[in-house]
Amino acid sequence: MKLSVSGRASAVAVVAAVTLVVTGSTAGAAPAPEAVTHGSAALTAAPDIPVADVKAHLTQLQSIATANGGNRAHGRAGYKASLDYVKAKLDAAGFTTTVQQFTSSGRTGYNLIADWPGGDTGKVVMAGSHLDSVTSGAGINDNGTGSAAVLEAALTVARTDYQPTKHLRFAWWGAEELGLVGSRHYVNSLSAANRAKISGYLNFDMIGSPNPGYFVYDDDPAIEKTFKDYFTGIGVPTEIETEGDGRSDHAPFKSAGVPVGGLFTGASRTKTTAQATKWGGTAGQAFDRCYHSSCDTTANVNDTALNRNADALAYAVWTLSA
After folding, report:
1. Which residues does 149 contact at the CB level (< 8 Å), separation at least 6?
2. Is 176 a catalytic residue?
3. How confident is the model at residue 134, as a pLDDT?
4. What is the rounded average pLDDT of the residues 105-132?
C-alpha cells in the first residue's frame, strides 16, 4: 500500500519499536465457503482456495526478493522476476497475458494483465493487486499477500475450467508504492468505451496482516454487500475500510467511474481494544508492525486472515461474474 504523508510518520514510529518478527497462525482457519450456509441457501459455489497454495507463492516471492537485494521494488530486478514468476504460472494455465510497460522515476515499470478466455467482454469483472514492494523489504504482506491470493484465484479458475457469464480479468500492478503509477497508467490507457465495460474492479492490498482486522471497502454498495455476505456466513464481523482510502489501486478506477471494492487487514494504524475483542490479536499494537520495513517477510503473515480473505476473494469473483 502506498504510504500517505501522515501515515509515514506513524509507520516510522511503529517500525522503530519493532524488536520481534510477528508470526502467523493457522488456528481458526475459515471453513471452505461452499460448506457454509447463509440463511437457508448455500453461500457460494466458489471453490475453497487452500491457504497452503497461496503461501507457496509467498515463499517464491520471498526467494525472489532474497536473491535480488532484499526487495521487489519498481525498476529493480526483484520486481521483474516477480512479474515473470506470475506470468509463467498464468501462461501455463491458459490465460491470455499482456505486459504493459511504463516509465516512472526514470525506471521501467510493468503491469501484468491476464484475461480468461470466454465470457461477455462487454461486462468485465477485474481482480487486482500491486506486485511491487518498497525498497526496504520483501513486501510479503504488502503486497505479496494480495498478489498471491489473486494469482491462486486465477489458477483456480483455470483448474476448475470455470465458465462465467461475464469476462474475467486479473491484474498485477507496478509502482503502486510510488503513487499508484501502474494502475493509473492502465486506466488512462483505456478508451472511455473500454472503461465502461468494466462492471467491477476488486482490489486486494494487504490481506494477511499479522495482527489482523477485517476491513471491507464501502465504495460500491453491491460489491461491499458481496464481501460482507461472505464474512457474515463464516461468522466474522467486519468494519468499513478507512485507512487505505485513496491509497491503493482501486482509486484510479473509482475516479474513472468504475465500481470498486476490496479487502484489507490493516497497516500502521493501532488495533483498538474493541477490535481486539471482536477479532482477537493484540490491542494497542499496529495491525502490521512490519509495514514498509525489512521484517515484512513470510514470517509477517497471519495464516487465518490470509485464508479467510483468499476465500472471500474467490467468493466475490465467482458471485459477481456468474
Report:
1. 49, 54, 129, 204, 207, 306, 309, 310, 313
2. yes
3. 98
4. 98
Q: Whole-angstrom Cα distance, residue 302 to residue 289?
A: 12
- Indicate if the alpha-carbon torsion angle 212, 218, 223, 226 is positive or negative: positive
Q: Are strands 260-264 and 198-204 parallel, antiparallel or unpaired?
A: parallel
Long-range contacts of 99-102 (CB under 8 A, 24+ apart): 100/182, 100/185, 100/186, 100/189, 102/174, 102/175, 102/181, 102/182, 102/185
Nearest to 250 by CA among 194, 191, 198: 198
Choosing from 176, 177, 224, 241, the catalytic residue is: 176
CA distance 144 to 170: 15
Q: What do you get for the CA distance between the two ends of the chain, in Å?
A: 30
Residue 3: which pLDDT band, with cuts at 50, 70 and 90? low
Closest to 235 (Cα-Cα) out of 28, 49, 40:
28
Q: Given this model, what pLDDT does residue 269 score?
A: 98
Gap between the Cα atoms of 138 and 69, Å rounded: 9
Q: Name the 3-class secondary structure at 231.
A: helix
Structure confidence by residue, pLDDT tens digits, 154-185: 999 999 999 999 999 999 999 999 999 999 99
Among 101, 109, 106, 65, which residue's Cα sits nearest to residue 85? 65
Structure confidence at residue 179 (pLDDT): 98
Cell of 304: 487465518
CA separation for the pair 211, 249 (Å, rounded): 23
Q: Which of 320, 282, 321, 318 is nearest to 44 (CA)?
A: 318
Sign of the C-alpha dihedral computed for residues 193, 197, 200 and 203 taken in this order: negative
Single-letter amino acid code for the residue at 19: T
